[in-house]
Specification:
Elements (H helix, E strand, L loop, with lengths): L1 H12 L3 E5 L2 E4 H18 L6 E4 L5 H12 L3 E4 L14 E5 L9 E8 L2 E6 L12 E4 L9 E4 L1 H15 L6 E4 L6 H14 L2 E3 L11 H10 L4 E4 L1 H8 L12 E4 L6 H11 L3 E7 L3 E5 L11 E5 L4 E5 L12 E6 L17 E10 L5 E6 L4 E3 L2 E3 L1 H8 L5 E11 L3 E10 L8 H6 L10 E4 L13 H5 L4
Helix pairs in contact: 1-5, 2-3, 4-5, 6-7, 7-8
């Protein structure tokens, strides 16, 4: 079971620090004791094997204890965004949330406190049960459609953690900065569980702090605790670049970005400022991590997300289903071990190969470059435009902070590209069309430019293209 990884670390690491930050140190043995106490309270309240327990908690030690206690009860953790108004009420009978928090509409009938500052709420209504219970249930980001709940088994979660540790070689001497949220796969597996399974200390904000760290607080956490690893999203990279430029992140050897592609310019600026190379990880909620940039030498193309993790194979297929030639773009299909594929994964799971809906190509060294979503392709008079290609050209302009390109319906051509752009203060963007024409074919150049103070993004920093497609140019 997934919780056994934690128990083995407790046995090996004992009094070494498990959770650090804000001047406090919680040892592995002390964390284990807190989890055991929480399990006793939760079982007395009625939590049992096969139950679904929703966790609406910030990424601090309360979440860690609550998640581990839920697994120890034989229940599954439904991971929710703890931000106010973040989504519909959970589909679970039980809810773990901060004390005295007003969660309207959850149908509370009674509550106990298994962890200091956390209430276990028994909700009215149905009681979903699993036999056997998965380890976790996550909600997809909803960037390409309605959010769904995805269940992942204990075997799949254990395999994900072990694959990740096999290529990163993290251990007890490491300190992992917990910046990516735990209700997303990246923060959960490559932040929290990477620490729980390897014995690395997990640096995190104090339990009394806000749901999301400010940009300067992120930098202070990484610097003060001497973090060697940081699990981040592009949002965190942008935030830290806008924060205290005196911060010293010299101990950081793994700055792992996932959740959305990190723009090449963003990764380069972060490395120049802080001296830490940004490595990208590619995956999806349904299957977990698929590839990671773990090569010692940096790739020529900063968009590289690396080679498939051990035990995972990928194929790039064209519209006819055949494998594309080397260097060509195709849809990314994944062949993961059978135990990893959830019942409702995209594509034909019975055939093992699962279509991700993402497009990619392989470089000369066999490393994956993600080109975007198949659904995001813009087709103009039968010719295809990859939005990321146009965005990359736009972001090479000194006035552009970030850009997103989406289609607009055209009566004769079918679709044309429209660029939504965030400019640096004081810039007008009047020469953006000329800039694009110098780098792109004329038919790939945006037909209109729309300027925004910021682009719409989800909690993990992933761009919400649908929100832009709905806006007039």
């Amino acid at each position: 079971m997934l919780g056994d990884l934690f128990k083995r670390t407790v046995a090996c690491s004992g009094e070494r620090p498990a959770l650090i930050g804000g001047g406090r140190r919680v040892s592995w043995r002390a964390l284990d004791a807190r989890v055991d106490q929480a399990v006793e309270v939760m079982r007395d309240a009625g939590v049992m094997d096969g139950d679904l327990v929703a966790l609406a908690l910030p990424g601090d030690e309360r979440f860690v204890a609550a998640h581990l206690a839920t697994l120890a009860c034989g229940a599954a953790s439904l991971l929710l965004d703890p931000s106010p108004g973040s989504g519909p009420p959970p589909s679970s009978h039980w809810l773990l949330a901060p004390d005295r928090e007003d969660r309207a509409g959850v149908g509370i009938s009674e509550a106990v406190e298994p962890i200091e500052g956390v209430s276990l709420v028994r909700r009215d209504g149905s009681r979903p049960r699993f036999a056997p219970a998965p380890a976790i249930v996550q909600r997809t980001s909803g960037t390409t459609g309605a959010a769904r709940e995805i269940a992942r088994s204990h075997a799949a979660c254990i395999a994900e953690v072990r694959r990740f540790l096999s290529v990163t070689a993290l251990g007890p001497s490491d300190v992992i900065g917990a910046l990516a949220p735990f209700h997303h796969s990246h923060g959960l597996f490559h932040g929290l569980w990477a620490a729980l399974a390897s014995g690395a200390a997990l640096a995190m904000p104090e339990a009394s702090g806000p749901v999301a760290l400010t940009r300067d607080a992120q930098l202070r956490l990484l610097q003060a605790e001497g973090c060697t690893v940081a699990a981040v999203t592009p949002y965190h990279l942008e935030a830290m670049l806008a924060g205290d430029q005196r911060a010293d992140l010299s101990r950081l050897r793994w700055c792992l970005s996932a959740g959305a592609p990190a723009a090449p310019d963003l990764a380069a600026r972060f490395e120049r400022r802080f001296g830490a190379r940004v490595r990208q990880l590619y995956g999806c909620t349904e299957l977990g991590a698929i590839a990671v940039d773990a090569d010692p030498a940096a790739a020529d193309d900063p968009r590289v997300v690396g080679r498939p993790l051990p035990g995972i194979r990928i194929e790039l297929r064209g519209e006819d289903g055949a494998t594309v030639s080397d260097g060509e773009v195709g849809e990314i299909f994944v062949d993961a071990p059978a135990s990893d594929a959830p019942d409702d994964a995209p594509g034909d799971v019975s055939a093992r190969w699962v279509g991700t809906g993402d497009l990619g190509r392989l470089d000369a060294a066999g490393r994956l470059i993600v080109a975007g979503r198949a659904a995001d392709l813009i087709v103009i008079a039968g010719r295809k435009i990859f939005p990321e290609e146009v965005e990359h050209a736009l972001e090479q302009h000194d006035a552009v902070v970030e850009a997103a390109v989406v289609p607009r319906t055209h009566p004769r051509l079918g679709q044309v590209p429209v660029a939504h752009v965030v400019l640096r203060p004081g810039e007008t963007g009047e020469d953006l069309r000329a800039h694009c024409l110098a780098r792109l074919a004329s038919w790939k150049t945006p037909q209109a430019f729309v300027f925004h103070p910021a682009l719409p993004r989800g909690p993990s920093g992933k761009l919400l293209r649908r929100a832009l497609s709905d806006r007039p140019a």
